[in-house]
Amino acid sequence: MDSTTPGLSFIGIVDFSEQAKWLFMTNSVADLLGYEPHELIGRPSLELVHPDEFSRTKQLHYDTIKQDKAAVLVYLRMKHKIPSRGYILCGISRTVVHNVLVGSVSFANPGKAMHNASTAQEITVISPSATNFQFKRWHDPSPISPTNGPSNLPSPPSPSSSWHSRSPRSPGGSSSDSEERTPLPELRRQDTISFDHLPNQSLRTLFILDRFSSRGTIMYCSNDYLVTTLSAMTRSFFDFVHEKDESTVRSWIDCVKGWGVNELGQPSDGGFGFGRFVLLTKGRDSNVRLPEPSAPSSRHKGARNRASRSHHRDVGRHTHLPPVRTHVSSLPLPEGPSPQVPVDAIFSAHSDGLMVILRRSEQ
């Protein structure tokens, strides 16, 4: 990445097909790869991968889904729309969410890579030019060191033993740290695997939140497993967080926002945060009256506008995902106590929004 390349990131969702077709992406893809979302939606994401890395990337796509992985990173090259730009070395995060693979794509940055490595559950380096991103921790069972997160918060669960639900090496659990980082075998193009559309995996739910609002407005909810999409869309995410956990969850989100900036202080990606809290499936009135942030800089403002356009324009028009419902917040709150569900969470910040991935806690 040269000094003229913006260190931004975009959120992307692909399907479980052999082609890993784009279902959704936020508008910052134009800053990274030169494409507008409508140019890529419905097309295979693998067609952007460098030919020398195609086979291994396709194998990785298959393995990530079959092993039901979460919060994992890969470094590979993706094609820029402008031919003279060639292939861009990117860091790509991936998490399996029931029937889709969600994550983000950003320009690989050595400084950011060090932090991402300290929070990801697994790192795979495919591009030969990215060998310096092959970091390994000193047998730390948790991907977050105590110094990386907010102080005085409950210890996060160890995702190395819980979020990877399937592994061919260790059924029912994840592989060891050294096994996870074993380089993939070299594959020739003619050895590229083929497979049918893969079946659904663990029941997890993705929320995409407005990064630039103190309310944490829900701009997208991937399924009705934990909360109904109709009740969640455009409401504050904190409506669904138990009151006793709200300040803690806010601290976690503020923390990943702080991580998710680039070298110029612009909104970008910055690794994963893990936590556990009690979810209210029917929601509540969190009655947030915090002042909105001061007027953002032009670059921040642009990212905010991209997030809004991305969800209100692209989700409904160009994807197979449910369209945003803009008047849901006016619906009356459900009567009676809201069922309480302990959930494990993965938090991450990106140029166009925040991602929160939830599943029912196993403890």
From TrEMBL:
Regions of biased composition (Basic residues) lie at 298-320
One Pfam entry name = PAS_3
Q: Where is the composition biased (Basic and acidic residues)?
A: 178-191
Question: Source organism's superkingdom?
Answer: Eukaryota
Cite the residue spans of the region called Disordered. Answer: 137-193, 287-337
Residue spans with biased composition (Low complexity)? 160-176
Q: Give every PAS domain span.
A: 23-68
The record, for NCBIfam families, names: sensory_box
Q: Under what name is this protein listed?
A: PAS domain-containing protein
- What does the record give as the organism's lineage? Eukaryota, Fungi, Dikarya, Basidiomycota, Agaricomycotina
